[in-house]
Amino acid sequence: MFSGIIEAMGSLETIGRTGGRVRLRVDQGAWNCRLSPGESVSVDGVCLTVERQSGKSIEFSLSGETLSRTRFSKLYRGTRLNLERAMRADQLLGGHIVTGHVDGVAVVRKVKKLSDSTEVEFSIPSGFEPMLVSKGSVAINGVSLTVATLTKRAFSVALVPYSLRQTNLDNLTPGESVHFEADILGKYVINYLRALPIGRGASLERKSL
């Protein structure tokens, strides 16, 4: 589990099949973090298990499910990747609860640079409209963000200078894909409401949403 507060940026070294498995190798860059096999690391918002670390290189295996829900297979060598180590139970939750189980990809629709921030509008992946609320939380490429505006098909966030400096969200362009994870609390609420008896569940869901 993660907080959505990015610790460092690494870069993609290689991705490809080795011995029947798809393996991802990431250069951790200036992140002087010693990792043990079996540890969880958020790589651009995706929870991956460390298989080995050699110097600055960290290796992971990707499942078919992970490849189907992420943009990893479309990335190229040198692509910057947001990195965050799994959070401890005794540390401050500076962002929100991010599981690293991304729901899919969202697409950048608009980018508007302002004097003190950058506003970015994204499409909402189909089926996840009820799980976003104005001023609620959402994770983009593993970064904990607040929904600024919300319509039926799109939402926007405001990126402050610190977020632009510390993450790979600083140079987004219309048409670009990003990893999207809806707030886990919203998912549980929606799932609970849908499991109620038809009449009662439908009534409560309409009132809640």
Report what the structure shows.
The chain has 209 residues and is of the alpha+beta class. It folds into two domains: 8-85, Elongation Factor Tu (Ef-tu), domain 3; 104-190, Elongation Factor Tu (Ef-tu), domain 3, CATH 2.40.30. It has helices spanning 64-69, 161-166, 184-195, 198-208; strands at residues 8-18, 21-27, 40-43, 46-54, 57-62, 80-85, 104-113, 118-123, 137-140, 143-150, 154-159, 177-182. The model has no long low-confidence stretch (mean pLDDT 92).
Question: How are the elements arranged and paired?
Answer:
Layout: E1 8-18, E2 21-27, E3 40-43, E4 46-54, E5 57-62, H1 64-69, E6 80-85, E7 104-113, E8 118-123, E9 137-140, E10 143-150, E11 154-159, H2 161-166, E12 177-182, H3 184-195, H4 198-208
Antiparallel strand pairs: 1-2, 1-6, 2-5, 3-4, 3-6, 4-5, 7-8, 7-12, 8-11, 9-10, 9-12, 10-11
Helix pairs in contact: 3-4
Strand fraction equals 35-45%
User: Per the principal axes of the C-alpha atoms, what is the gross shape?
Assistant: globular
CATH top level of the largest domain? Answer: Mainly Beta
CATH architecture assignment name of the largest domain = Beta Barrel
Number of domains: 2
Oligomeric organization of the protein chains: single chain
- The total count of strands amounts to 12
> Please, how many helices?
4
Give the H and E element order.
EEEEEHEEEEEEHEHH
Radius of gyration: 18 Å
Distance between the termini: 27 Å
Residue share in helices? 10-25%
Mean pLDDT: 92
Structural class, by secondary structure, is: alpha+beta
